[in-house]
Amino acid sequence: MKILIADKFPKHWVEVLKEKGHEIILNPALDENTLPEAQKTEQAEIIIVRSTKVNASAIDAAPSLKLVIRAGAGYDTIDINHAKTKGVAVCNCPGTNSIAVAELAMGLILSLDRRIPDNIIDLKAGKWNKTEYSKAKGLYGRTLGIIGLGHIGREVAKRAQAFGLKIIAFDPFVKESPLAQMVSDVYDLAKKADIITIHVPNTAGTKHFYDEKFFEAMKPGAYFINTSRGGLVKEDALIKACAEKGIRAALDVYEKEPKADAKEFVDPVTSAVNIYGTHHIGASTEQAQDAVAEVAVQIVQELADKGTFLHQVNK
Ligand SMILES: NC(=O)c1ccc[n+]([C@@H]2O[C@H](COP(=O)([O-])OP(=O)(O)OC[C@H]3O[C@@H](n4cnc5c(N)ncnc54)[C@H](O)[C@@H]3O)[C@@H](O)[C@H]2O)c1
């Protein structure tokens, strides 16, 4: 099959696809604006993307298109409904990068509690401030609230158990779990938790859900971690809560996130007081990228061998 890969993809798995007889067009420089033209030229049957957005124009660019593979978990970067109307399947690679994101979430929790980034910046600047940095609360016995107990939320819960955290969780589709005590109301969770981490999909229904009302419900001085999607959080409300209520936040994702190859990102949320940020690196470990690529190749083979779609999200 002819496959256009419009993002970075591990070399080993590109070779595997070629060995299986597929024609590969690898163009990691493509973006939302240039993908439609490239697809018009290439007439690929399959498009594989990581962060490159696939809009209606890319889907309409060639009648040959059968499948778009999102090499990752979230698929809010792909116009899945338009794809459905055009008979194009969209498949994702669920669960493959959950451990990587959970590891980052744990790192961010520890960073917030011990203010590790500030510690390091001060030390590098030649400052010794043991008195200030000895003020950490500690994690053991505190309450972690996990919102969204899916693939990533569950991996976070397993790791948090090892730290002796008490785990509560809210997920409208999970009534019971051996990993956490479920609560039935998200604001109830916000009131009880010392640390909140969100692992939910970004949909029309969840956009800006984490707003003034939510931060108002949180305990003063509690921690808030978002490694899911920027659009879930009303960033000005978070900035205010961090400045006025002593909430401390760590974000891996942002509402106005720059493109993967951008060199600059200046935004009020990245420089705000009490907010740490990373560069949307949740899934970016070699282990995770390898696991994602393996599943992407399985999806290709399932279509090539059986004509069926594995992990289709727009049935
Ligand atoms: N930072 C990164 O690099 C990175 C990498 C991978 C995934 N993600 C993001 O992480 C998020 C979670 O991914 P996942 O693989 O765990 O997804 P998942 O589908 O396995 O789990 C999501 C869970 O959220 C629950 N949910 C749905 N709506 C909810 C709501 N309104 N409130 C609470 N829970 C709700 C679902 O029932 C499900 O259990 C997604 O937004 C994904 O895009 C980020």
UniProtKB/TrEMBL annotation:
Chain segments annotated as transmembrane: none
Entry keywords, A to Z: Amino-acid biosynthesis, NAD, Oxidoreductase
Ranges for domain D-isomer specific 2-hydroxyacid dehydrogenase catalytic: 3-314
CDD domains: PGDH_like_3 (cd12174)
SUPFAM superfamilies reported for this sequence: Formate/glycerate dehydrogenase catalytic domain-like, NAD(P)-binding Rossmann-fold domains
Example GO BP: L-serine biosynthetic process
Source organism superkingdom: Bacteria
GO terms for MF: (S)-2-hydroxyglutarate dehydrogenase activity; NAD binding; phosphoglycerate dehydrogenase activity
PROSITE patterns assigned to the protein according to its UniProt record, in alphabetical order: D_2_HYDROXYACID_DH_1 (PS00065)
InterPro entries listed in its UniProt record: D-2-hydroxyacid_DH, D-isomer_2_OHA_DH_cat_dom, D-isomer_DH_CS1, D-isomer_DH_NAD-bd, NAD(P)-bd_dom_sf
Residue stretches making up the D-isomer specific 2-hydroxyacid dehydrogenase NAD-binding domain: 106-282
Family annotation (PANTHER family): D-ISOMER SPECIFIC 2-HYDROXYACID DEHYDROGENASE FAMILY PROTEIN (AFU_ORTHOLOGUE AFUA_6G10090) (PTHR42789)
Entry's family note: Belongs to the D-isomer specific 2-hydroxyacid dehydrogenase family.
Name of protein: Putative phosphoglycerate dehydrogenase
Organism (species): Elusimicrobium minutum (strain Pei191)
Upper classification of the organism: Bacteria, Pseudomonadati, Elusimicrobiota, Elusimicrobia, Elusimicrobiales
